[in-house]
Amino acid sequence: MAAPPLKPMARPGANVYQQDATLADIFGELKGRVLLEAIWSTYQARSMAHGMDQRTGLGQVGEKQRVRFFIDDNSTSGTPFPQRVRNIARHEYNQRCQSGVKKAYVASVKSRGVVEAVRGEAWLVQSASATSGDMARAPYRALSFASLCESFYTALNEVETELTQYKLQNGITWSQKDYESRCAFACAEFLKQHTDFGEVFNEWRLFESARACYNFFGKKWKLLDGPNGLVTVMGECVDFLHPRLHNSIVLQNIQHVTTSICTALYDGLSDDDLRVLIMEAAKLCVPMLDSPNADTNWVFDTTSKKSSVSRFFTLMTGSVVTSGQKPNKKGDKENVRPAKKAKARPSAKSRGAPVPNLPEEQNVSMATIACSVGVRNKLWVDDLIGCVNHVTQSIHEMDNDLPVMELKSHLIRTGLIFAMTGSIVLETPSGTKQHKRWSTLRPALKQHGLHMMVQARQNMYLRL
Predict the structure, then answer these.
(1) What are phi and psi of 427, to 5 degrees?
(2) C-alpha separations of 359 from 157, 402, 442 in Å
């Protein structure tokens, strides 16, 4: 029987703990995924307790241990759980924020507990200042299992079951990593740069799409990091456990949709408008959490649909909106509300807060957009941005305390979904209605924005 292949490891005779050694000094010509695996296997904690590895002459790699969840009190009674000192915290290298995953984990922990050997084992780092038996030591920092451990703490605080009690008393198994204080600086930097997203690419197309998205959102538009950046927004809002979610499809669609928008709107829109438009278009490429129509709003769910982004770039020349022509006897013109049937006027008590009127929008009938050099044809997405800016700027002048940017993002996303699906249901002061034409949706979108402003005002005053 042939011996199993050797794992990639350091060069023979290399001083793996020399702080100023380079990657080439320690690992030679290893690169990419192979180098990453070599670093992990080299700097796992070793022990001679179970004998020596005959192939390497070293102690067994990754000696498994058990770590408890709280430093001070791991009993099932006594100090309330929220007041105890946690023994496991998220490592600074592991900054993946997946709210949807953690919600699912909390529910799973409540019903099934934390089952061993289902998700592998935790990779934890113990602080260099920690000493055995020191109850005041710093917590272990989780390179993996951070979301599961955080979900376990949440489940403990919400409800206590026999399964959570059992896991609380037994802790979790882990493999110690000792690179924190001993490995070469170059190796630690390599790990930090290549494990931020917890992804080792196993196909070239996925890597190319990820690199293109990183350069586009990070370097060009500065939309990757920060509280409103792509990483934070996607981490908080995306349903990562959706059965049809596939990394490669998502990255390809985001890359195609966002770059198509920037190519078509290379001039004529402000950078601020483009940033909001790009972010909202990217959200249409993923299933969002807490959305009443999550699957419907996930419009770019396959790669075959990414080419339909061209609908955003429909010319407005000759449209009902720009020409003001009536498509039928009932007609519909921008800034003019359609005639309504007479209804019984409700009493003053039943009527909601009054909805203010918007000033008339300018340049609606123009079929071109002024650019830094010359003009270009006006596109549907230009008209959407003009309509939304008219609403948000008017509302900001009425009340500058309202969250206008959130409203702007919502209205733009509503318009984009309409363009892709062909219909949208909107709630306005006059009621809820389905819209299938842009000429009728456009004024309704403004009324919807005013309706949301009135609701925001009421909620704000209730909080005060």
Answers:
(1) -105, 125
(2) 52, 18, 15
SS (H, E, C) 249-274: HHHHHHHHHHHHHHHHCCCCCCHHHH
Mean pLDDT per 10-residue section of the chain, whose length is 464 residues: 61 82 88 79 56 40 72 86 90 77 87 76 66 59 86 89 85 64 70 55 78 87 84 84 88 92 88 93 88 70 90 90 64 47 48 71 88 90 95 87 88 94 88 91 92 79 43
164 neighbors 155 (Cβ within 8 angstroms): yes
Distance (Å, whole) CA 355 – CA 456:
12
Rounded-to-integer distance, Cα 103 and Cα 150, Å: 10
Nearest-angstrom CA–CA distance, 329 and 337: 15
Taking only Cα atoms into account, the Rg of the chain, rounded to an integer number of angstroms, comes to 29
Of 56, 114, 125, give the one whose Cα is nearest residue 92: 125
| Phi (first) and psi of residue 375, to 5 degrees | -135, 165
What are the structural domain ranges in the chain? Answer: 64-128+136-177, 204-313, 379-463
**Residue 239 and residue 241: Cα distance in Å, rounded?**
5
Compute the distance between CA of residue 279 and CA of residue 288 in angstroms, rounded to an integer.
Answer: 13
